[in-house]
Design goal:
Layout (H helix, E strand, L loop, with lengths): L2 E7 L2 H4 L3 E4 L7 E3 L4 E3 L13 E8 L7 E8 L5 E5 L5 E6 L10 E4 L5 E4 L4 E2 L3 E2 L5 E8 L6 E12 L2
Parallel strand pairs: 1-9, 1-14
Antiparallel strand pairs: 2-10, 3-4, 5-13, 6-14, 7-10, 7-13, 8-9, 8-11, 8-12
């Protein structure tokens, strides 16, 4: 029987173990463009390891709805991965700590408009999961020759839902 995971709003505190929340929280670091643009500087630490390079890609993901069946998680052992929505719509994030080289009990978060995330290197996570159209994201991650993807399939899936 599937276990149920309840989503929670994404905050910097509850996401701390898994990565960084990228947003405009707090005061801007500087004003640029003749004072017409606030710059929120260096909001994520992109990790590509010693033999990778930073890549900027566009992903166009199919939208999903809750409840959602979670039967697989993945991680990138050689670099971080940032998901930046190209709309103001929130999206679903599923993460888990590592336990003996497999995901522990997953947690699920829903972003607020204007939030993006950067998974730390090696963080178990679900696939890109927009909850409304469009599913277009800028993704910043490692480009390199090594296999930077591990997948884990659960014997018993989880059900992700809201209260």
């Amino acid at each position: 029987m599937a276990q149920k995971i309840i989503t929670e709003p994404l905050t910097k505190t509850n996401f701390w173990d898994f990565g960084e929340v990228i947003d405009t929280d707090g005061d801007p670091d500087m004003l640029i463009n003749q004072g017409l643009c606030e710059r929120y500087h260096d909001r994520a630490k992109i990790n590509v390891g010693p033999d990778g390079k930073v890549g900027l890609s566009l992903f166009n993901a199919e939208t999903r709805s809750l409840p959602l069946v979670l039967n697989m998680m993945e991680r990138h052992p050689d670099g971080s991965q940032a998901f930046i929505p190209m709309s103001t719509n929130g999206f679903l994030i599923i993460v888990a700590n590592d336990k003996n080289s497999r995901p522990d009990i997953p947690k699920a978060f829903v972003t607020a408009p204007g939030q993006a995330i950067n998974f730390f290197k090696g963080t178990w996570h679900g696939v890109l999961t927009p909850l409304s159209e469009p599913g277009l994201f800028a993704v910043i991650d490692r480009i390199g020759k090594s296999q930077n993807l591990e997948e884990f399939f659960f014997d018993v899936p989880y059900i992700v839902d809201t209260l």
